[in-house]
Amino acid sequence: MRVRSGGQEYGGTGAPRPSVWVRRALARVPHRVRREAVAGWAAARGAERRTVVVEGLLCLLTASFGLVPLLLVVPARPGLAVLEAVWAVLLVAVRRGRPVAAVLGASVLVVGVNVWTVAVAPLVVMSATRRIAPTRRAWQVVGAASAVVGVLTVVTAPFRTERLAFQVVGNAVSLVLLLVLPALAGTLLGQRRPLVSLLRERNAYLERARALTAEAARTEERNRIAGEMHDLLGHRLSLISVHAGALELAAARQAPALAGQTELLRTTAGTAMEELREILGVLRHAELAGPGDDRSGDGRGTREDIAALVDESRRTGSAVELDWSVPEGEELGPRTRQAIHRVVREGLTNVLKHASGAPTRVQVRSVGGGIEVSVTNAPPPVAGLSRGGTHSGLAGCEERVGLLGGTFEAGALVNGGFRVVARLPAAGRSAAGPSSPGRPTAPHPLVRPGPGGARAPLPDEILTWPRVLGSGCAALVVVLPTVGFLVVLLVLAVLG
Fold first, then answer.
1. C-alpha distance from residue 479 to each of 177, 196, 202, 256, 307 (Å)
2. DSSP E strands: which ranges in 387-470?
3. pTM to 2 decimal places
């Protein structure tokens, strides 16, 4: 009994006839081809331009390598040789998106008549098996491709002039050298890729952990230094300020001529106490401030601030002249202004210590988009009155100016005087920038750390560099017999 439904005939068991199944499968072929073409076009449009160009050049090179030699050495079946060249181009194009189909399709090239496309088969297999995971599945596909080679060898035997035994031996050797060995190299390289990615990820993690550990250690050290400074210097400065106030009151009654000096002593002690508090706040809360947040220097580096420093020096008996030629509309960064304050203060302090009473000139001017600050003093009126020093203040100024991207110079003049000069950018560079010493930055996850990066040992069960390099070296050794075999085949084809 047969039932006809929808134009199809079914037997009594309900199973379709073989002819109906074949027609149905053939009817679906155009739909599948069209679907694959649309998916391939969408993938090509979504890929990077560099990838599209490289793939296009590879396809063009494959077509040239498979077709051009046919013009010089005409094969016995030129039509079939051209079809094999076109098939090789298709395999190169689909090896990335459809690696399983590429490996299975490469079996056709192994038993083909176009010897020039044989050189493409191992490259396609090696590139495709790299992208098949897990490794067991890749070898299953290679086994299926080997079975296809065996079937094609038997099917095409009547159409060849060689004996079947000779064809079986030759195709078996080609199968090992052109399919199995490239698949082994591809699986090794496929295992190497995740190892490299894992190594980079682990190195980035270790580098980040090292940076966080160093930052925590710096924070702890800053807190310790802040506590020591508060306990020692804070107490001493408080005593100085109290005694200076008492001395000011006594001098106002008993020695009015010294009233100005005692007032300067008291105000200087108070200013030192305020600066100490600011420094302690920076030490304890530096991690909370942003790169451009420098509140401790908001009121410094202005014309009024530098004029106040000059007035303090004049009250000690020094002849100090101020030359401020910075335009009013020019914007100065907070760190630049603070650096101006530090350089001027250090220069005036050096004049007071080493050349007290010498005429001094403080100059702040705009030069080439930046700021030039200089403190120049004449020779001391009395030789040998220098109190000596450790030059730590000048070293600190040089370091501060260098962090901002400027230059610093200090040295004696020909006439016996001394000059301190600093050239600063108007905006200033963040002290937390890449040039700051001791401030590590988090690396890109795919960037390998430099010589100063983390060198912590990795667990043996994860990976090591020899394991990563060993995969590539083993793949290279495996490919060498394939290259030699291809060279022999191509030479024989040219000579034949």
1. 9, 21, 30, 99, 79
2. 407-412, 418-425
3. 0.43
